Amino acid sequence: MPNYVVGHKVPDSDSICSAIALSYLKTTLGEPTVPARLGELSPETKFILERFGFEEPELKLSYAGESLYIVDHSDRVQGPDDIDDATILGIIDHHKLGDITTSAPLECWIRPVGCTNTIIKMMYDFHDVEIPKDIAGAMMCAILSDTVIFKSPTCTTADIKCVEALAEIAGIDDPKELGMEMFKVKSAVEDTPMRDLVLRDFKDFNMNGNLVGIGQLEVVDLAIFDSFKDDLHADLKALREEGNRHSTILLLTDIMKEGSELLVVSEDESVIEKAYDVKLDNGRVWIDGIMSRKKQVVPPLQDAFGAK
């Protein structure tokens, strides 16, 4: 019976491409491993898989009795619902250390870089395994996505060097040009249901016993939201109530202006205002320079909840 590799719920490109890349590496090393996913793919991820000729990983929600590797997260609330009944073989991640625990030793690769695929590239190098051209292309795209084409404050020299190396393997002359193609796909939001947009890149976080949902939409021009921003805000409110969340937040990130407008629905807005030292206006605020949920949004909010 093979092992599995799976990322977080509402998978993004890093989560999916990590599962594909790690499963190939582990299988090559003599450990049959299959990539899987916990949710539907975003348009950007579909673009990447089609660009490099990959099928969508298996949609698998239950892992009881299975052995698996966790990629792109280490928070229980983001993983499979029955994770306690599975055997965790390893965690490969670039976020803060979460609350997944194991009863036996496991393989851990956790680095403060911009993308999980950067870490997996390090793993290929460590094991001296050649990366296939198609996998290199998918990994490169995931890094470009997570680092917002190197604009995110999470981007490191390691991420940039990995993109350069992977682009050479994949035969991509201009990675940034391909990155802009990806973000244009991300920006195509017309005729998409509000709930699908809110959940396109959405994660729940346990913050001192408070469930907080944070989504992000990264586009090349924030003006595309002007006609339906109120609808997005209304769906955020419904999502908060349905999930019994303390707060729901949606980052509308303009990658060209390098900042984000936060749409907020909360039972206590003062916590949000304290976290970012801002004043919400009708549940909204623009913050220059905010590009990263992982580095700029989650940590100050976690601190604010801890200080409550």
UniProtKB/TrEMBL annotation:
Residues 179-305 form the DHHA2 domain. GO terms for cellular component: cytoplasm. Its EC number is 3.6.1.1. One of its GO terms (molecular function) is inorganic diphosphate phosphatase activity. Gene3D superfamilies: DHHA2 domain, inorganic pyrophosphatase (n-terminal core). The keyword Glycosyltransferase does not apply. It catalyses: diphosphate + H2O = 2 phosphate + H(+). Keywords: Hydrolase, Manganese, Metal-binding. It comes from the Bacteria. Its cofactor is Mn(2+). It is an enzyme of class 3 (hydrolase). NCBIfam families: PRK05427.1. This is inorganic diphosphatase.
